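User: I'll paste a sequence; please echo it back and then give the predicted structure.

Assistant: Echoing your sequence first, then the prediction.
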Amino acid sequence: LSIDLNAKLIYASSASVYGDAPSPQIVGINENPKNPYAFSKLMMDVLAQKYYDKAHLVGLRYFNVYGKGEFYKGKTSSMIVQFAHQILAGKNPRLFRGSDRIYRDFVYIKDCLEANIKAIEAKNGVYNVGSGKARTFQDIVDILQKELNTNLSCEYIKNPYEKFYQFYTQAKLDESFAYKPKYSLEEGIKDYLPEILRLFEKEVNV
């Protein structure tokens, strides 16, 4: 359809295609999907490449996205909103054991929107969309507790997904792509917090 309409197509790929590849993850290197979802995203990228000479096709490999509009996802929403609501409910934040050594590239939704806009004028290809910096799940809880002025003890539980888990993701950003992230994890959480509080009051604490 994109070819028939001579339309630009920007589609969602995923950092999951890298599996447990060494960080930073680079497009085209050590792609090793560990589940059907990740494999489907990689196959989408492979298929798109076959049509680069016929259409404008850009795949964006989102890393761990968080921000407004995700609450409907429930248990698959970001750990930022899930940890925040645990803390606001007075519950001890529940993390996997070793969470201070589990790294993710958390990218704020406003940066993702900017990436989509930049993709309209980008060359055909697949690009990472992340912050370019890896942070831990423990960092999230510590930032939230600072912002919410709480000091709850963390509860550490066994990770049931160890065999399929990504323990370190960090996007290598392509300098040829005009996208440049603006939000650090601290800045993104602070900007997101009013919406998190609204959700807790209007959707959770009812």
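Helices lie at 2-5, 36-49, 79-88, 109-119, 137-148, 185-204. The longest strand covers residues 9-14.
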